[in-house]
Amino acid sequence: MQVHPWHDVSYGDKAPEIVNGIIEIPKNTRAKYELDKETGMLILDRVIYSSMYYPTNYGFIPQTYCDDQDPLDILVLSQIEIVPMCMVEAKVIGVMQMMDGGEMDDKIIAVAANDMSVAHFNDVSELPEYWKKEMRNFFEDYKKLENKTVDVEEFQGREKAMEIVQQAITDYKNKFNK
């Protein structure tokens, strides 16, 4: 029996404070991997046109659903590059809200709960300012050579992020009758 990472893996029993994140893209890569929603396999969507690298591990929270018809995105801060399709216990600390191609596209910001170099952060406001600037810069610029625009709004704290996670869980249950 094949397990589908979006539909068959739990978002975690401590959600919305701590969630399971499924990593699609390790930090420091130019490869844009994406979950194939039908098969549950990871596909190479594209190689980023710009000479930029993902500043954090990037993935999704299983059994969540958003307006873009995808699971909720999550950025997992860690000192290491986490391999694709690895499930990570992630402590939610904030959200980066952005408009991508005219659609809202929230990115939950979390820290790997089992990485002591980052696990002490409890809110995005505690992060070094440089980390936030690097995330903002990456997401505002990584699609420019594709002639696409991404507008990053302000970073919001842990409480707002947990509301978004909870709403995405509810929306998944409503969408898929679970």
TrEMBL record:
Q: Which residues does the annotation say bind Mg(2+) 1?
A: D68, D73, D105
Q: Which domain of life is it from?
A: Bacteria
Q: Which residues bind substrate?
A: K32, R46, Y58, Y142
Q: Where does Mg(2+) 2 bind?
A: D73
Catalytic activity reported = diphosphate + H2O = 2 phosphate + H(+)
Localization, per the record, is:
Cytoplasm
Q: Which InterPro entries match?
A: Pyrophosphatase, Pyrophosphatase_sf
- MF terms (GO), sorted A to Z: inorganic diphosphate phosphatase activity; magnesium ion binding
Keywords, sorted A to Z: Cytoplasm, Hydrolase, Magnesium, Metal-binding
User: Which GO terms fall under biological process for this protein?
Assistant: phosphate-containing compound metabolic process
Q: Name one Pfam family in it.
A: Pyrophosphatase
Q: Which Gene3D superfamilies match?
A: Inorganic pyrophosphatase
Enzyme Commission number(s) from the entry: 3.6.1.1
Q: Which residues form the signal peptide?
A: none
**So which cofactors does this thing need?**
Mg(2+)
Cellular component GO terms held in the UniProt record: cytoplasm
Please tell me where this protein is predominantly located: cytoplasm
- Entry function: Catalyzes the hydrolysis of inorganic pyrophosphate (PPi) forming two phosphate ions.
Q: HAMAP family per the record? A: Inorganic_PPase
Q: Which family does it belong to?
A: Belongs to the PPase family.
The entry describes its oligomerization and partners as: Homohexamer.
What is this protein's name?
Answer: Inorganic pyrophosphatase
From which source organism is this entry? Answer: Nonlabens tegetincola
